Amino acid sequence: MNARNLAFKTDSFDVAICGFMGWNDCFDFTKNLFTQSDTKSKEILRVLKDGGRFVCCSWEKQEDVRWMEDAITRRYPAILEDREYLERRPIGMAYEKARGYETIFQNAGFREIGIFRETMTFISTNEEEWWRQMQHLGWNSFIEKIENVGTDQLQRVKEAIFKDLQRYKQTNGIHFEKAVFFVCGVK
């Protein structure tokens, strides 16, 4: 359901949880200020009971997605001229910050705001599995654009990326770190 207009009665829940919802549509995380009115956090606050808790999470770091972006732009620089790519970079690349979420929560009226972080190493068993994961994380349409230039073009890009990827390969697979932050607030 759209968080801007939740179809629940006021004071319905003890806890609301959301993951990777994103506020970059109304908040500039670089400047730490609103670019337009935020209705999502206020609507979430509305459906919580007094003393209810809201927890949301977002990526703080996705080493694999960032690395993929660097690898693609290095191996296929024409992507930097693709309007879709510039406007809608792959998932995880919004660069949201915990400090921004703290501002969003405060603006909505939450109190007792806390920020927690978790970092883990994610392991892909081999290059092809890693490639499929990148496709599912938002790279598929851009990979298809490279393929449309020519199958041989995609093959050259993919082979070069797989060669560069070897520095992340260990005996049990390809290792990348990912970090999330959780922001909690009380109504």
What's the SSE blueprint?
Layout: E1 13-19, E2 27-28, E3 33-34, H1 40-47, E4 48-62, H2 63-75, H3 83-87, H4 98-108, E5 111-124, H5 127-149, H6 151-165, E6 169-170, E7 173-186
Parallel strand pairs: 1-4
Antiparallel strand pairs: 2-3, 4-7, 5-7, 6-7
List keywords for this structure.
Rossmann fold; elongated; 187 residues; alpha+beta
Q: Write down how many β-strands occur, each being a DSSP E stretch of 2 or more residues.
A: 7
- What is the CATH topology descriptor? Rossmann fold
Q: Please, how many helices? A: 6
Q: In what range is the share of β-strand residues?
A: 25-35%
Question: Averaged pLDDT, please?
Answer: 91
Question: Largest sheet at a glance?
Answer: 5 strands, mixed
Broad structural category: alpha+beta
- Name the helix and strand elements from N-terminus to C-terminus, one letter apiece: EEEHEHHHEHHEE
Helix content: 40-55%
* Poorly predicted parts: none
Alpha carbon gap, first and last residue: 21 Å
**What assembly state would you assign to the polypeptide chains in this entry?**
single chain
